[in-house]
Design a protein that fits this description.
This protein has about 475 residues and is an alpha/beta fold. It has 2 domains: about 1-150 and about 335-415, FAD/NAD(P)-binding domain; about 155-220 and about 270-330, FAD/NAD(P)-binding domain (3-Layer(bba) Sandwich), CATH 3.50.50. Helices cover about 30% and strands about 20% of the residues. The protein has 11 helices and 19 strands. The protein has helices spanning about 15-25, 90-105, 195-205, 235-250, 255-265, 285-290, 360-370, 375-380, 395-410, 415-420, 435-465; strands at about 1-10, 30-35, 110, 115-120, 125-130, 135-145, 165, 170, 185-190, 210-215, 220-225, 280-285, 295-300, 305, 310-315, 315-320, 325-330, 345, 350. Strands 1, 2, 3, 4, 5, 6, 18 and 19 form an 8-stranded mixed β-sheet that branches. The protein has a 5-stranded parallel β-sheet with strand order 8-17-9-10-13, covered by helices on one side. Strands 7-14-15-16 form a 4-stranded mixed β-sheet, with no helix packed on it. It is globular and about 60 Å long. Bound molecules: flavin-adenine dinucleotide. Flavin-adenine dinucleotide binds near residues 16, 54, 148, 194 and 359.
Amino acid sequence: MTVIDTDYLVVGAGAAGMAFVDSLVAESDADVVLVDRRHGPGGHWNDAYPFVRLHQPSAFYGVNSRVLGNNAIDEVGRNAGLYERATAGEICDYYDAVLEEHLIPTGQVRFFGMSDYLGEAAGEHQFVSRLTGTTTTVNVRRKVIDATYFETSIPANHTPSFDVDVDAQMIPVNDLVSLSGPASGYTIIGSGKTAMDACIWLLDNGVDPGTIRWIRPREAWLLDRAFQQPLQLLTSLIEGLARTLDATAHAESVEDLFRRVEACGQLVRLDPTVEPTMYRCATVSDNEVESLRLIENVVRQGRVIHIGTDQIKLEHGTVATDRRHVHVDCSAAGLRTEPDRPMFEPGRITLQQTRTCQPAFNAALIAYIEASRDDDADKNRLCPPNRYPDTATDWIRGSLLSYRAQAAWYAEPDVTAWMEASRLDAARGINDHLDDPLMLSALGRYAENFEPAMATLDKLLPQSA
Ligand SMILES: Cc1cc2nc3c(=O)[nH]c(=O)nc-3n(C[C@H](O)[C@H](O)[C@H](O)COP(=O)(O)OP(=O)(O)OC[C@H]3O[C@@H](n4cnc5c(N)ncnc54)[C@H](O)[C@@H]3O)c2cc1C
């Protein structure tokens, strides 16, 4: 058994753990031990499907100390006119470089890959190597950081909730690229972004939309990527927020709220005739929505229970299939919805969201707050937990907490300065656009509608539970 000492033991080297460590090292001289059961950093991106890309621009993903990609705007393709989005390969290379070329050379960070954290017993923390079986005991002088609380569930490593006959063809989305011959048809299983990516990939590779069937147990509200743009295109992001606040301020009921936010282009759905019951922060472009609407064979009979060789059994019915039909599992939860717990507790930090669905930004901010303040109550005031949304009405709670937290940050000059310098803050750089009348108009409407919108969200929150 080996024994080591450190200030912070960080469990999980995914996007959250990496952004936290990078920010902590920038703000303090703390010693850090970073542990992950995977061989390297990057978390679920190491096992992502080959054609995945970030939903959002690379420009505000990753860690603070290093740019991901080139901050370029795509000129061609489905993302033309919007900031580039990294592939999984680019993301994994990026995290390797952050670790090898920045964090380790600081002398403050030691990384233990292929190591399972076993937990705490009698004040001692332990992890065990998956390769040698060696157990390491860690004496933690300050805190353990749980960067696994929202560990991402993906098709490559989850167990589907349905059974499949041995002679039926069912593959995780990762294996679509390994198919060696045409199928009689493709059934995509899942309502989320992974399912959308699978459909788009099939369409982009020449598959006739008529041969794609999409099992969508739930309909989702989606975000329009054109309004999630930073840097040179920041005015569009602020315009989106201004429209959302204006719509929210005037809403009279939960139903009216969603109608208004949709009417101003800030929530999008694939099928305007079906009321969404799901919201998971998935982001799409107009162009993707247009293509996805070409798939008309949408099955809304609940979740899959069983895939046989001639029929698929669902919660509310059956549909025919055959042995040459390929069924594609896109049903992993992705974002996990664990209950909120205090971000800061004695001896422990649990990395969660505060700004809705921004895991990298939140983790970096939490490290800054940890390094710059002493009192846990004050730290928790600035970083209230805001669990990942799941149902459509979770949009209300997530937005309310996010806007309120943001107002609290802007009331603290040092936090405002930190955010302005943080590449992970999508909204930084507003002052560079103050000569743009569109930005001034958006900022005016944002300010005018902020408090009325918060009052509406407060009022509607109990009705949305
Ligand atoms: C297809 C897809 C696209 C996405 N696109 C975006 C996007 O554009 N923007 C965005 O903000 N988010 C996006 N997300 C959300 C994504 O989940 C986050 O961006 C982020 O990658 C999550 O990082 P994480 O560190 O919380 O979790 P993970 O990546 O799951 O990392 C957790 C790590 O903890 C390790 N671990 C767990 N338990 C232990 C243990 N006991 N011992 C040791 N190690 C342990 C795991 O091995 C893992 O490496 C996307 C998600 C998916 C699935």
